[in-house]
Amino acid sequence: xxxxxxxxxxxxxxxxxxxxxxxxxxxxxxxxxxxxxxxxxxxxxxxxxxxxxxxxxxxxxxxxxxxxxxxxxxxxxxxxxxxxxxxxxxxxxxxxxxxxxxxxxxxxxxxxxxxxxxxxxxxxxxxxxxxxxxxxxxxxxxxxxxxxxxxxxxxxxxxxxxxxxxxxxxxxxxxxxxxxxxxxxxxxxxxxxxxxxxxxxxxxxxxxxxxxxxxxxxxxxxxxxxxxxxxxxxxxxxxxxxxxxxxxxxxxxxxxxxxxxxxxxxxxxxxxxxxxxxxxxxxxxxxxxxxxxxxxxxxxxxxxxxxxxx
Length: 310
What we know:
elongated, 10 helices, single chain, Alpha-Beta Plaits
């Protein structure tokens, strides 16, 4: 039998006093040990959804359960399951990383465990900086301190809200490696991001949120399969002045000053049409010196999904 979801969100809604509808009827189950990426444009509801699950924002409809605990009725037990790394780099700049993680663990009423906290700081490459004032650390190190703080009480679930916003490419790759190690240690990870490559690199499943609605939840491979397009480009021996009527059965376009013939088709569709196209070109005496294929990226899929629902 599959494990019960670690997070279960049902018919969740949030309408602010101003009338702004931030979340509408969101249903989502997140399973133990997965990396779930929540994608959406700015203002789509990503941070509101995380805040509602973490008990920071009170929903106006629906329910959230974390490891079976209702976030409203059993707030303390539910919140103890969660580590949250917010988007903003706020922490006490006059503290040291060691004091910060020790204090954070104590807030949850847990007994001191210096060995565990040392391991967290070592995993985050912060051990050598444990006695330095946080204000003296780089932006990337400050973000690591926030992660260490979120992990201090040994949560089952870690929320990362835009974890690599504003950090350089090298640090982003370090963070990705860290997220994988956390998952391998049994932590379930939910991250929001507007970096499509981050979701493509990291996630097992992807949710797309727009205007407060969860418009799609798929495994990454299914999403690519279902919505991905493939483009076949034939580099012709001789440019064509026009596409022959005999080729009207394929959605073809001319590109590169008519020296290339392009054919876009569904990656998931039956691809028998490609060999038939090549055979027809041979029968018509249209030669090509090379061909290339390209699969649409997750970014293109995301943009088309969001624009379709504007």
